[in-house]
Amino acid sequence: MSSEPVVEIKDLVAGYYVAKGFRSLFKKFTPVLRNINLTIYRGEKVAIIGESGAGKTTLIKIMLGLIKPRHGEVRVLGYTPYSLKRREKRLLAKKIGYVPQDPSRSLNPRLKVRRILYEPLEALGIDGEEAEKRVFESLKHVHLHRAVLDYYPDQLSGGMMQRVLIARALVHKPEILILDEPTSALDVSIQAQIINILNEIYEKLKPTMITVTHDIPVAQYLAEKAIILYKGEIVEEASFQEIIENPKHPYTRTLIQSYTLPVKP
Ligand SMILES: Nc1ncnc2c1ncn2[C@@H]1O[C@H](COP(=O)(O)OP(=O)(O)OP(=O)(O)O)[C@@H](O)[C@H]1O
Ligand SMILES: [Mg+2]
């Protein structure tokens, strides 16, 4: 394991500006994340775990530079993601692969898979044979046949859509792979398929892999370290063995209890 930090967050406060009342023009800052301190090292496989509304997607958007922190410092691969010039933005975008939360809403229904996979490469100035090579490699990583290039998203099953999104995140060979609830929209059998594909990708490409989930078993399959987010704060950060054997925060205990509860016959 490397000791080079790829994500460094210090004393972060972040949230959204929300209208104070119905039809109000005045927007008030509503914090979602508070006192976040987090370091993720190169090659680590971590899971950010928390219930709905805990701020998981917001934390990812901070790493992607889509939200500006209200307070604190954020560094991703040495860049300050929310305040980059166009050229630097492209350089950082090349290094991060992002699979957003809801597969069916994340794919443009009017574009064939071919365009979905080529577009991010073209945006980075990669075309021709090199682009084709990257697209074919990415399809291979997610076990999809080249025939899907001619499909529209509505011709794909949920699992295939998710695989296309993973392939799209891989086309530019990212150093960091960020997955927001990669299995939550899928049936259990398909969840296992996606988990296996992601673990294969990790073994082959060794990216820093950050998975967001509300599901402890999924987190355990996809990560070595758990970061527990509760109501916008990191309440625990440890290996799965540690948090299962000795959970410190009451929320972690609830998570672990519900997970290990025996199933009634
Ligand atoms: N664009 C936005 N404007 C205002 N509030 C928002 C916005 N996006 C999220 N929120 C609020 O911020 C809080 C955290 O949202 P976030 O999406 O980060 O949670 P999450 O942990 O990803 O939840 P889920 O598991 O449901 O995806 C929620 O209360 C949500 O309503
Ligand atoms: Mg979310």
TrEMBL record:
PROSITE patterns in alphabetical order: ABC_TRANSPORTER_1, ABC_TRANSPORTER_2
GO biological process, one term: transmembrane transport
Keywords: ATP-binding, Nucleotide-binding, Transport
Keyword ATP-binding included in the entry's annotation: yes
Top-level division of the source organism's lineage: Archaea
Name of a matching Pfam family: oligo_HPY
InterPro entries registered for this protein in UniProt: AAA+_ATPase, ABC_transp_ATP-bind, ABC_transporter-like_ATP-bd, ABC_transporter-like_CS, Oligopep_ABC_C, P-loop_NTPase
Protein name: ABC transporter related
Species annotation: Staphylothermus marinus (strain ATCC 43588 / DSM 3639 / JCM 9404 / F1)
Phylogenetic lineage: Archaea, Thermoproteota, Thermoprotei, Desulfurococcales, Desulfurococcaceae
